[in-house]
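[job 4471] stage=fold_predict status=RUNNING
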Amino acid sequence: MNHESDDGSTTQTTSETPADEPACTSDPPSAEDERVIIGIRIREASRIYHFSAPRGRVFTGDYVVVNRARGDQLARVVTVPDDDAPTREIPGDVRPIVRIADGEDRERASQQAERADQILQDMRSTAVKEDLGLYPVAIELSLDGDRGTAWFQAPEHVDFRQMLDDVQDKYDVRLHMQQANQRERASLVDGYDICGLRLCCSSWMTDFPHVGIRVAKDQDLSLNPDSISGVCGRLLCCLTFEHEVYREMRGSLPRVGKRVSTPAGMGKVIKLNVLQQKVTIALDDHSQRVDVPADEIGLAVRTEDAPNQALVDAERYRKEDEERAAALREAAAPPPGTESTDTERGPGQRRKRRRSRRSRAETPSDGRNDEPASTQSGQPQEATGETSSKRPSRRRRRRKAQVVNQQQSDAASDETNAPLQRPEGDGRRSRRRRRRSRRAVNQPDEDSTPSE
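[job 4471] inference complete, writing structure tokens
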């Protein structure tokens, strides 16, 4: 290209634009114009809030400053769409972030956290002095420090206006009082539970599940409140994590109280071990309890002579218990020199004393056995003159008199219906009356025979 100078000379210049590129190009679209929806958290285990941010400028784990109802706050980014995700329209209620946080913003957030702890301690001491009946749990301030939220716990409605006015005037801050329940208190305060790990509600869990006593029963846990309750006083949230697995594994086991057949024999289910898939059974023909795997439930009873392994283990446990009990009895026995007096007397004297007690028991005390047994039974006495000390049988003593006539029958029925009384006087007369009643029917008595 030729150019003419002011003095009339001509100069030649060459263009440095490549021939393969267009002479004029348009600017690429700015990244500020394309925005995506991100998710942020104010605290570590708080709810996820959505804001809009420039695409490719914010990543997971970054800190940003967002504007909320209580002022600007520092938040952490937890969700970001993928780079190849299609662009979608951002709803009108999604607000943009204020800026990406820098070191100064994080330093201000740390200072406001220390200031919030100081205000919290002052509020707790004031609540105790004035006996307000509430417990301040936590305070959260904005980056500017002029506004914030204070959580408290109280069993009923309390009047905290005077305390709130004093704190606001002293620290030049405007606080919003919000009541928290037991689980929210544990989440805000943070801590460690009986498992040795950090509280789930403070570290990662955002929603509180419903935990009932049925969850603990399905897992065969102890119903002691101290062992299944968390630091908040409610049932442990982690009981719901494995509840569905327990229900699925428990479905293949028989119910407690059901009678089943096993290779060890027939028995009744008394306990379940869901994790090991074993069933504790009380056998019908054995005194020991055996643990049978779930896959052996329902099999036929063994007919061979070889014993079942469960029975062998049960018998071994029984013998060990007997040996342990025998060792304890031997250890608790008195020394050999301190035996009882009965042992010193010898077995002969003890037998003699038992015979004397037996003879006293057989000796009559009411005079009923004065006559020999042969006279009572109606048999003649032997010539040797030996008498038997054996008492007559109860059947003979209670035998009723035979009916001689209608009058005697009526009298016998009256005597039968009358209460049983002990005979008075000598026992011979009553026995004589019983012997007379054994005579044949319709035979006249000797007293009724007419005298000549």
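[job 4471] summary: Residues 188-250 form one domain.
[job 4471] exit 0
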